[in-house]
Amino acid sequence: MPESTFAHTAHAGATPAEIWIALQDAETWLGLGVMDSVFNAVVEDGRLTSFDWTAAAAGTRHRGRSRIIDAVPGQLMVLALDSAEVAGEIAVALHAEAAGTALTVTLTARSRGFIAGMFWGRVSAALGKGLVAQVDGFAARFQRA
Q: For residues 118 and 37, is the Cβ–Cβ distance under 8 A?
């Protein structure tokens, strides 16, 4: 199965602790990778453990599931993404800076289905092209006034 990995770092004015708290809300993950809606979030003891999502691609709505596979409070959160056509991971790493946080998002995606495999070049190119703007927008949500 073809696989692609992309990463981008942006800077946020909020502290790693403030961003970590926001990452416990499934809505915070909107706009990263392929997700354009999230629902059915499961939070246990104040920590996000999973949620369902949808994404539009090639004129079709796709549904998937995310679950947290690694978490270091204030430093790292990794989601496993699973759908019929694509699987992978989104990792958000937080590093304190003098004026906020360096926020690095790494997206790894693999084709699972026949259609994604056939068009992986286009799928991969779209994911890679969109990540920089997605991460910059994600970090912008955490700027201080």
A: no
